[in-house]
From TrEMBL:
Biased composition (Polar residues): 242-252
Native organism: Buceros rhinoceros silvestris
Stretch list, region Disordered: 211-252
Pfam families: WD40
Protein name: Dynein axonemal intermediate chain 4
Length: 708
């Protein structure tokens, strides 16, 4: 027994409680009562219970956790009276044989019992592991010794190569980075779709009355008369079951319905694929787009916005509003009469000009679809005869981000989807419409090839391609343009040529005639000993022909120089302008003051030049970003637009030469790449690096006349 500090009995009770009335103990298998001397009944049963469940051999004794109930003296006393010690085979004890109560153990232990020999066999039970910690030390003679030594060697090599290695991260612990864990989650989105079909009243009528349709015989193809039907029914009643006739009629009816459905499907497909139906769909699409974008298109063409009177559904509210307005006007007239105010004074007050709002760029819409998303807008050009048709080239300026390009023709009548899509093998870098043949669209690509497409045809293949030419460019075609030049003495002697400028330093026409090979100029900085030029030609970046004399043109180079050249002389430059310290991205003649031109560069600057002076007239700095594109306004000699990496700017030189008049910043992670003025309206088109061409309206900008 176990007692606590206060004297209470806290002896653990056995989990197994035996019932003494179930079985009578067998006398041949029972130990003497002296074997339990000093032990209580429950403790004695507990010891035998533990021994029996542990699976030891016969005659063994396994002690429980309580050491206070150990046997002090045990004597094997079999019932046959022999005094020989009990052997393990003779002392087989089962749990059911131990039915000893505490009151039965009352015999006294004699001296002979104390002096007798008792054999006790102790065996180890199965080990119960409560906490198992794997060892970190292994014997060299074990089977896994070689594997552990190899892992230790690998770890030593890793620790040796760890200093200065980027694969390791310094942390506040002396351990290696753990391996990445893989987790699996359900990431497939459950897509819900709405399915529907169009059903006409004719389809409903045929489907509802399909069971009433009379079957038609396949053999004769004629309808049976009422007398024949009655005769057949009478015959069926005597000869065959009625079910045969019903089954035949249902099969024929099903066949007729299937044939009718197939015929209807073929007819609908023929209607959907017909050219007349496609033309009607095209007209319907135009009407829907004009209804959706009517306010934006009206603002673009500077027309009044139409309001739909059917949008006001509450007639009572409209009548109440009209009455309230009428009462308000009547009240105002009465107050005017009471104040005796002269109407002429009110007229003069109404004529007083209100304070005008500052100039701004209001976004109308944007040209963008799934095909153009992710492609950078590289160039834009208007059609020479159709003011609604816009050609946009999509490519990439970075060598590492090159991918297939697109040339799309957008219309103002459908800003949602392009009218023509011309896929290209390489990124599009420049494009332009022809003047003499407005259907031809020339496209320059990053690989140096030039392709010409016919926009009137729905064929996406190129009408003409320069890849097979031996005089093809070896660098990206950064700019191309259709130019009309004098080729004869008569009035009809002007012919149009396609002029291209490439990064290989060549300015040539499509007829394989080199107008100029831009050579590198001698730098003021002397070359170091052993330093040599890789190429004598300088990479051309842009050009622009004189608005009056098409034999004169400007060419900007990657060196930051601008050369004035002539088509009549392909060996020397007429003039060289030095002012930029980075590649010149764009040059543009002023369409009104033809002696002036602009240039923009990667050195964050825009410079205004005069063709007779090698020194810049004005230099504009507004942001620390590359200036990608510039363009003069077609309505004023003082206004031009510029786009840099972060904003679009409108400069009015008659108002300020220090700061732009209007600035609109780009969205995060978006770069403006190109700019284009609309021909007949006060709108501006801006392309960005995400493939979107935004249309902006110039508001409250007092543009000086072109005569100034």
């Amino acid at each position: 027994q176990v007692f606590d500090d206060e004297g209470k009995d806290v002896t653990p009770h056995p989990l197994f409680h035996s019932d003494p009335d179930m079985l009578v103990p067998r006398q041949g298998k029972l130990w003497a009562s002296s074997a339990c001397f000093g032990a209580t009944g429950p403790a004695f049963l507990s010891s035998f219970s533990t021994c029996q469940t542990s699976g030891v051999h016969a005659g063994s004794v396994s002690w429980p956790y309580s050491s206070s109930s150990l046997l002090s003296n045990a004597t094997a006393a079999p019932l046959n009276g022999t005094a020989e010690p009990a052997s393990p085979q003779d002392t087989t004890v089962s749990l059911t044989d131990v039915r000893v109560r505490q009151e039965e153990i009352t015999e006294e232990v004699t001296k002979k019992d104390l002096d007798g020999r008792v054999d006790i066999y102790l065996t180890e039970t199965e080990t119960l592991w409560i906490l198992a910690v794997p060892p970190v030390v292994l014997s060299v003679e074990s089977e896994d010794a070689g594997r552990v030594l190899e892992q230790n060697k690998i770890y030593a090599d890793i620790c040796k190569n760890r200093p200065g290695n980027d694969r390791f991260v310094e942390k506040m612990m002396q351990t290696l980075n753990g391996a990445a864990k893989h987790k699996e989650v359900q990431c497939d989105k459950i897509i819900m779709e709405d399915k529907g079909t169009m059903v006409t009243s004719r389809d409903l009528h045929n489907s509802f009355n399909i069971s009433e349709m009379e079957p038609v015989s396949r053999a004769g193809g004629s309808r049976a008369t009422p007398g024949q039907r009655r005769k057949s029914h009478a015959t069926e009643e005597h000869d065959q079951p009625v079910s045969v006739s019903l089954d035949t009629g249902s099969t024929t009816s099903t066949t007729i319905s299937e044939n009718a459905a197939l015929a209807r499907i073929h007819k609908e497909q023929a209607v959907l694929t017909s050219e007349n139906f496609q033309q009607h769909l095209f007209s319907m699409e135009r009407i829907l787009m004009e209804n959706i974008f009517q306010p934006q298109l009206a603002a673009y063409w500077q027309l009044p916005v139409l309001r739909d009177p059917a949008l006001t559904s509450d007639t009572r509210g409209t009548v109440a509003a009209i009455k309230e307005q009428h009462n308000k006007e009547k009240k105002d007239k009465e107050e005017q009469k009471e104040a005796l105010v002269d109407p002429s004074i009110l007229l003069e007050l109404n004529k007083t000009p209100a304070k005008t709002a500052p100039p701004s760029l209001e976004r109308l819409w944007s040209y963008m679809c799934n095909l153009t998303n992710g492609h950078s807008v590289s160039s834009m050009a208007w059609s020479k005869v159709n003011p609604d048709l816009l050609a946009v080239g999509y490519g990439a300026f970075d060598f590492k981000e090159q991918k297939k390009g697109l040339a799309c023709c957008w219309s103002l009548k459908n800003p949602r989807w392009p009218e023509r899509i011309f896929p290209c093998e390489h990124g599009v870098t420049a494009l332009d419409f022809s003047t003499s043949s407005p259907k031809l669209l020339a496209v320059g690509m990053y690989d140096g090839s030039v392709a010409i497409f016919d926009v009137r045809s729905r064929n996406t293949a190129a009408f003409l391609d320069s890849r097979d030419s031996s005089n093809n460019h070896t660098g990206p075609v950064w700019q191309l343009r259709w130019v009309e030049q004098d080729r004869g003495t008569s009035a009809d002697g002007r012919k149009e040529r396609l002029v291209c400028l490439s990064a290989d330093g060549r300015v040539n026409a499509l007829d394989c005639t080199d107008l100029m090979k831009i050579k590198r100029t001698e730098s003021e900085k002397k070359n170091l000993p052993g330093e040599a030029l890789l190429s004598r030609e300088a990479a051309g970046m842009c050009f622009d022909f004189h608005p009056k004399d098409t034999n004169i043109y400007l060419a900007g180079t990657e060196e930051g120089l601008i050369h004035r050249c002539s088509c009549l002389c392909n060996e020397h430059f007429l003039e060289t302008y030095r002012g930029h310290t980075g590649p010149v991205y764009k040059v543009a003649w002023n369409p009104f003051s033809t002696d002036m031109f602009l240039s923009c560069s990667a050195d964050w600057s825009i410079i205004l030049w005069h063709q007779d002076s090698q020194m810049p007239i004005l230099t504009f700095h507004s942001a620390t970003a590359f200036v990608h594109d510039i363009m003069w306004s077609p309505k004023s000699a003082f206004v031009f637009a510029a786009v840099n990496e972060s904003s679009t700017e409108i400069w009015d030189l008659s108002a300020s030469t220090l700061n732009p008049t209007i600035s609109r910043f780009a969205s995060p992670r978006v770069t403006f790449t190109s700019v284009l003025f609309a021909k007949n309206t006060d709108c501006l088109l801006v392309g960005d690096s995400k493939g979107e061409v935004s249309v902006f309206e110039l508001q409250n900008l007092a543009v000086p006349g072109s005569a100034q």
